[in-house]
Amino acid sequence: MNVRRVTAVAVTGAVGLVVALLSIGTSPATGAHLDPERTWAGQRVASVVAAQRIAGGGKETLTLVDQQVRQRVVDVDVPGDSPGDFFLLDLRLFDETGQAVVGRGSVRCEQGISTTNCQATLRVYKQGQITVSGCIYKHLNAVNLAITGGVGQFKGAGGTLRSFDVQDGNPVLVLTFVR
To answer: How far apart are the C-alpha atoms of 141 and 112, rounded to whole Å?
Structure first.
């Protein structure tokens, strides 16, 4: 009798461990709770011109229209929004008219307690790369990130990236450089 009970407990324990390990490995990554498009898009505006006007600009600005190519959302803890969840975006970058492809972008944003922390690299063909980083504060409905550097023509760049949600269009990124 004791042998059977020990065997049953061992089998039940092993099955429980396998189920637990499988559930860790296949943690829900649907990301239905996170909305990368909404988080990254920023303030809603009527047009690209309106976005440029709000961003202010300076002597050196670059306006890009971004189109999301792929996204992945990873839910690392309990289902739903929680610190540590993150999303990845692959972007196709267009000139300000939205007609000519001028580059690619890669974005990673991680859910904080009350912010979303984002880092991105934007590659502008035949010119170089721009890196940006910063926090998106949920209650502000605005994306204002620091330009933290770059390579090629953007070597030593600093400044600000602002993202806007253009009605009936793709998000617009307005980069204002300070050198």
So the answer is: 16
